[in-house]
């Protein structure tokens, strides 16, 4: 398998999840500004959408969109999924929320935007983080079980903190708990992040 990624981007969730799943994978860095990969390939030709992540499976099939990439990894390693009769639905539900409501709200920070637009985005993100904070009553989004959704939320909490967005205290604890894990520390180091 190969994950196309950019350091610190949402693709970090895929790297953490692949390592958590014990899946051996190659990682190829994409320069998002030039759309050239570290091997000198034209990423726009590989993935015409131009963004990361993209996961290329061993049979050559490719999976794009972070929710699909993470759902695929959770299918390979069910321990990274929530438990219970509605487990699959709960995973779709939270990944959709994280992608559309939280990740989408960061847009003004990553694209041309005024300070007013960024401040409004910060308010929106803070409100959505407060909602997520209520879901964390025992370690992770789904109790004691670390899932691919936690990897995604962790990646976005890094952004929120870097942009000075207000993060609820229990989410800061949650972030630090995840950041302390050996796999996450290794994943951050592999992307040149400390
Ligand atoms: N809808 C995509 C969005 C992914 C996305 O926004 N990726 C960012 C990094 S976090 C990116 O590659 N941005 C560069 C670009 O859009 O040109 C998904 O959920 O996977």
TrEMBL record:
<feature type="domain" description="GST N-terminal">
    <location>
        <begin position="1"/>
        <end position="81"/>
    </location>
</feature>
<dbReference type="Pfam" id="PF13409">
    <property type="entry name" value="GST_N_2"/>
</dbReference>
<dbReference type="InterPro" id="IPR004046">
    <property type="entry name" value="GST_C"/>
</dbReference>
<keyword id="KW-0808">Transferase</keyword>
<dbReference type="Pfam" id="PF00043">
    <property type="entry name" value="GST_C"/>
</dbReference>
<dbReference type="InterPro" id="IPR004045">
    <property type="entry name" value="Glutathione_S-Trfase_N"/>
</dbReference>
<dbReference type="InterPro" id="IPR010987">
    <property type="entry name" value="Glutathione-S-Trfase_C-like"/>
</dbReference>
<protein>
    <submittedName>
        <fullName>Glutathione S-transferase N-terminal domain-containing protein</fullName>
    </submittedName>
</protein>
<dbReference type="InterPro" id="IPR036282">
    <property type="entry name" value="Glutathione-S-Trfase_C_sf"/>
</dbReference>
<dbReference type="GO" id="GO:0016740">
    <property type="term" value="F:transferase activity"/>
</dbReference>
<feature type="domain" description="GST C-terminal">
    <location>
        <begin position="84"/>
        <end position="194"/>
    </location>
</feature>
<dbReference type="InterPro" id="IPR040079">
    <property type="entry name" value="Glutathione_S-Trfase"/>
</dbReference>
<dbReference type="InterPro" id="IPR036249">
    <property type="entry name" value="Thioredoxin-like_sf"/>
</dbReference>
